[in-house]
């Protein structure tokens, strides 16, 4: 068919380009057939066999010529490949549960995640390790399975993507010793990476009420550092905090966490 013809003409620049056009075949079958239908099951079987063959080809390519870039850059490449996968269409952006009428979504899914949010976090060097990136990516697919069930179309597709991601991520972690990530270069007059990491570590110890109060403090002092994520959620971009606001927030967080330590003693 079309894919075979293009292979013969050396149309595909990368293995992943060929793979994604092939995956489009399974996607079409998944969309237009019920999960219990013969065609859906046949497409799933073909997809499983294809991904198994891809696993072998990827391992061979890695052995012959591994990418000579650092680990976090390979995570960037992997995310871009996942986003280009036609099966990822439903996971690119935050779930608009209000528009879709999913009234119980926030009750079932307590930590929403999507591929575009992961992309922004990668660009801002907000992941302190590749495993943090992997955790968020797996969360995207696990949420879909949790909310829709593993047997639904969304659950089946999420399972395929999760397996594909884990396969590629394993190659990354095996290729070289994992580096600690690449923080944004320190800017004169702005918080240093060490200061931002200290704030991050302290924030993990805050209660939900204290976190909400911290966000309100940032909104008043440095609106540019607050990013809207989904219908009701916001995200604080520490890299955009000016020094004055950062110091106020750090003082607040430090006071709250020290008070908690004293209360626990």
Structural write-up:
This protein is mainly alpha-helical and 265 residues long. The protein contains eleven helices and two strands. It has helices at 2-8, 15-32, 38-64, 71-84, 105-108, 115-123, 130-148, 153-175, 193-203, 208-221, 243-264, and strands at residues 226-229, 233-236. It has a two-stranded antiparallel ribbon. A hairpin with a 3-residue loop joins strand 1 and strand 2 (233-236). Helix 4 runs antiparallel to helix 6 (115-123), helix 4 packs antiparallel against helix 8 (153-175) and helix 7 (130-148) runs antiparallel to helix 8 (153-175). It is globular and about 65 Å long.
Q: What is the strand and helix layout of this fold?
A:
Blueprint: H1 2-8, H2 15-32, H3 38-64, H4 71-84, H5 105-108, H6 115-123, H7 130-148, H8 153-175, H9 193-203, H10 208-221, E1 226-229, E2 233-236, H11 243-264
Helix pairs in contact: 2-3, 3-8, 4-6, 4-8, 7-8, 10-11
**Class from secondary-structure proportions:** mainly alpha
Number of DSSP helices? 11
Task: Summarize model confidence as the mean pLDDT.
Answer: 84
- Describe the largest sheet: 2 strands, antiparallel
Give the termini distance in whole angstroms.
70 Å
**Percentage of residues in helical conformation:** 55-70%
Q: What's the order of the H and E elements? A: HHHHHHHHHHEEH
Shape descriptor reads globular
Strand arrangement, major sheet: 1-2
Query: Rg to the nearest angstrom?
Result: 22 Å
Strand content: under 5%
**Poorly predicted ranges:** 177-182
Q: Total strand count, please?
A: 2
